[in-house]
Amino acid sequence: MNLTENISEGLRSIASNRLRTILTSAIIAIGITSLVGILTAIDGIQASLESGLGSLGANTFDIEGPNMFRRFGGRAEKQVPPIDFRQAMIFKRRFPYKASISVSAMITGAAQVKYASKKTNPNTQLVGVDDTYLAVKGSKLAQGRNFTENDLVNSLNVAIIGSELVNTLFERNVSPEGKEISVLGTRFKVIGVLEKKGSLNGAGDDRLVLIPLNVGRALAGGRALTFDITSTVEGSKDPDVVIGEARGLMRQIRQDPLGRPDSFRIIRADELAKELEENTNVLRIGGFGIGFITLLGAAIALMNIMLVSVTERTREIGIRKSLGATPQRIREQFLIEAIVICVLGGLGGILLGLGIGNLISMVVSQGKGGFVVPWFWMMMGIIVCVAVGLFSGIYPAFKASRLDPIEALRYE
Q1: Which one, of 63, 127, 53, 65, lies nearest residue 99 by Cα?
Q2: CA 269, CA 247: separation in Å to the nearest integer?
Q3: Range with top average pLDDT, 150-159, 194-203, 237-246, 265-274
Q4: Interatomic CA distance for residues 346 and 26, integer angstroms
Q5: Which residues have C-beta within 8 Å of that of residue 321, sequence separation ≥ 6?
Q6: Structure confidence by residue, pLDDT tens digits, 165-176
Q7: pTM of the prediction?
Q8: Other CB atoms closer than 10 Å to residue 24's CB: what's the count?
Q9: Which DSSP category does 252 fall into?
C-alpha cells in the first residue's frame, strides 16, 4: 500500500466517523479560536492606536511638569514646582523653530457637567486650551467651530465638548451647538463637538470639556496649575536636534542648575509608539501563553480520542497487517487522521478567532479600529494545528503499529 492509498484510507476513516470527527475538531477549534482571537484583537487595538499616533508628526513632542519628588544623589529634594503660565508663554515665544505650539492646563479631572435637568457623573475633564490645541493634538471637530482669537483675548465663556457628553446631556437629534452647559458653577455656550476618539486607558478622551485658557485660569482661582506644552515643528528637521533645542531652552527658562536632572519631562510622539509596541509585545506573549494552555488541553483530549479509535479498530489493524501493511503505513494512517482532524478544527478556529478578535478590537477601540487580517498568526495557527496533530497522534499511531496481527484478529 503506497502513501497515496494510505492517505485516502485515513480520510475515509475520518468520513465514516463524522460525529466523532466534528466533536474532536471542535475541541481543536476552541483552542485555535482563543489563540488567534486574542492575537487578532491585540493587533487590531495596536493598529487603532497607531493610526491615532500617526496623525502626529515625528517632530511632535510634549513638555510636561514633574508629578513626583525629584531625587539627586540618592536623596529626595523638595518637590519641583510645576510649569507655570509665564514659563510656558516664554517657551512659546522663544522657541527657535517654526512650529505650532499649544499651551494647555488641566483645570480638574472630576468636573460635573449639567444641562437643563440632566447631568454627568463627576468624572469629566475640564481643560483650558488655546486655538492651536486641536490641530497640534490631532483632534477633529464633528461639528461646530474651533476657538478664535476673539474667544481667547476676551475670555468668552464658550466650550467644545466630547462626544460622550453629547450622548449623556442631549436628546437624540438635538444639536448641542448654541446650548448652554454649566461646569463648576459657570455657564458655557457650546460652540463645537469633538469627533469620537475612544480611550483604552480610562483617560476619557470623549469625556472632555475644552474652554479658553484664560477662562480656565480664572476658574482655578488661587490654585496653582500645571501647564503643558505641545509642539509640532514644521518641515523635516532632525527630531533629536529639535528635542535638544527644546530641552536646552526649557532648562534655561526653568533655571535648572548644571549637572542636575531636568525639572520637566519631554515626551516624543515616536516614543509613545515605541512604548505601545513594547506593551503589545508583552500582551502577545500573554495571549500566546493562554492559547497554548488551551491547545494543550485540546491535544490531550485528541490523544485520548485517538487511543479509543485504536482500540475500536484493533481487528481492522490486524486485517491490514495480515494483508501486508507495514508498521510504518499503520503509523502514517493514524498520524494523517490526527493531523487532518486538527487542521479541520484549526481552519474553523481561525475563522472564529478572526471574527471574535476583530469584534473585541472594534468594541475596545470604540469603532475606530479597522478590520485586521493577521496572516502571520493565521499561518502560525495552521502550523500549531499540525504540531498538535503530530503530538496527539504519535503515541496512538505507535501503539497501533505494534499490535500483534494474530492477537488483533482475535479481538472482539
Answers
A1: 63
A2: 15
A3: 150-159
A4: 9
A5: 330, 403, 405, 408
A6: 998 898 888 889
A7: 0.63
A8: 26
A9: H
Which of 313, 404, 392, 354 lies closest to 43, judged by CA? Answer: 354
Distance of CA 37 to the CA centre of its chain: 13
For 86-176, strand residue ranges (E) read 99-111, 113-115, 118-119, 124-129, 141-144, 158-161
Least confident of 21-25, 95-99, 276-280: 276-280
* SS3 readout for 237-249: CCHHHHHHHHHHH
Bridge partners of 180, per DSSP, are 189
Segment 199-205 long-range contacts (CB within 8 Å, at least 24 positions apart): 199/366, 200/45, 200/49, 200/364, 200/365, 203/125, 204/123, 204/124, 204/125, 204/162, 204/164, 205/162
Q: 267: closest CA among 83, 77, 63?
A: 63
Cβ–Cβ < 8 Å for 206, 196: yes
| pLDDT over 70 (residue 302) | yes
**What is the rounded distance in angstroms from the CA atom of residue 141 to the CA atom of residue 134?**
8
Q: Where are the alpha helices (DSSP H) in 17-95?
A: 18-54, 85-94
pLDDT of residue 137: 84
Contact status, residue 125 vs residue 154, Cβ threshold 8 Å: no
Average of per-residue pLDDT values in the chain: 79
C-alpha to C-alpha distance for 130 and 228, rounded to whole angstroms = 11
Q: What is the structure's pLDDT at 201?
A: 46
Given this model, what pLDDT does residue 70 score? 42
Percentage of residues in the chain having pLDDT higher than 90 = 21
Other Cβ atoms within 10 Å of 232 Cβ, number: 20
pLDDT number for residue 71: 43
